[in-house]
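Hi R.,

As promised on Friday, here is the backbone we talked about, encoded as structure tokens. Could you run it through your design pipeline when you get a chance and send me back a sequence?
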């Protein structure tokens, strides 16, 4: 290839590196769009030292889409072609441990062993670059009708789908989505698709407004007692399924008390420190509390869902920047400036 350099990001540093080479079951992708995840901001801030990343330097970014420009030695043998439009996810398990063999590759038993395991943008170089390498196990083909910007949101959408499915939602269920960041808003879309009878969403400000535009009943935690409001809306029964996306002590506690008897609380919010939960309430009312790690086997399911909800996902993309302006984009995202929701970077934009 003519170009032999690509941008490299360490925190907010922008520089150049050689284009990586694809291994036998990998592909080289020209990255067209990559959206900022809240985890990126935490990594830049040093909130996971020695874990994400294990060490610097590292190219961050894991919510991406692009075009395959080169194939690894065996990637073509299993159907991939140069020119395929693809999107990717962060996790790529070893493929051989018990958990991977059971399809639970996001909790790979060789997690963090860089000889056999990949986690793009966290441990393995990711997508804040003009070109990146990805295993074919961590990509999905996107149709021409799906824009690269929307396709860059398939990682969070597929995570939300896993969280909602793990709640064992059934048609007609009353659902509380607690938190209206990217995961919460994507969860509202997933709950609608899966037939929820009522969707309540708790947050405040423009994020809560976005949830309301997606069809959720808004609950502003700054203006009302969340648990009391959920009980009022459900005739005193509570929410049959709770999608906990806040990770905050107050949010987790509200989720536990807003849940109905026999409910499931499906958690994706990641607190900085452990939080207290009302165990007596969970035990006596048989409320299940389940954790979720990323998006095992939901990427392919989320792509047709995105086709059905293109306009809604597009409405969540509030800002677009060239990659060289990442520092400004991260500040806009982290501080929720100018009503920011999803902020997309364009590595090929000059």
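Update: got your reply. Pasting your designed sequence below so it's all in one thread:
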């Amino acid at each position: 290839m003519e170009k032999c350099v690509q941008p490299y990001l360490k925190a907010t540093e922008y520089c150049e590196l050689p284009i990586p080479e694809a291994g036998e079951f990998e592909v080289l992708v020209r990255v067209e769009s990559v959206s900022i995840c809240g985890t990126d901001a935490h990594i830049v801030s040093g909130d996971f030292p020695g874990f994400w990343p294990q060490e610097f330097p590292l190219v961050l970014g894991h919510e991406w889409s692009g075009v395959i420009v080169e194939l690894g030695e065996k990637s073509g043998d299993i159907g991939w072609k140069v020119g395929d439009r693809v999107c990717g996810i962060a996790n790529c398990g070893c493929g051989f441990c018990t958990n991977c063999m059971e399809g639970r590759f996001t909790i790979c038993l060789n997690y963090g062993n860089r000889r056999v395991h990949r986690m793009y943008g966290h441990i393995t170089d990711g997508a804040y670059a003009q070109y990146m390498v990805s295993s074919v196990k961590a990509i999905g083909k996107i149709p021409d009708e799906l824009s690269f910007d929307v396709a860059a949101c398939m990682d969070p959408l597929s995570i939300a789908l896993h969280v909602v499915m793990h709640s064992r939602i059934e048609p007609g269920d009353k659902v509380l989505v607690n938190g209206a960041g990217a995961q919460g808003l994507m969860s509202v879309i997933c709950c609608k698709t899966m037939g929820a009878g009522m969707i309540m969403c708790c947050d405040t400000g423009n994020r809560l407004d976005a949830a309301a535009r997606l069809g959720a009943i808004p609950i502003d935690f700054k203006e009302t007692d969340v648990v009391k409001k959920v009980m009022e809306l459900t005739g005193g029964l509570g929410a049959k399924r709770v999608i906990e996306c806040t990770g905050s002590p107050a949010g987790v506690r509200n989720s536990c008390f807003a849940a109905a008897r026999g409910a499931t609380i499906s958690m994706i919010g990641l607190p900085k420190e452990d939080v207290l939960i009302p165990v007596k309430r969970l035990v006596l009312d048989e409320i299940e509390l389940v954790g979720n790690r990323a998006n095992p086997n939901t990427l392919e399911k989320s792509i047709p869902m995105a086709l059905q909800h293109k306009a809604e996902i597009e409405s969540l993309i509030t800002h677009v920047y060239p990659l060289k302006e990442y520092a400004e984009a991260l500040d806009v995202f982290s501080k929720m400036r100018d009503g920011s929701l999803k902020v997309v970077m364009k590595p090929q934009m000059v």
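One thing I noticed while checking it: The first helix runs from residue 38 to 44.

Thanks again,
M.
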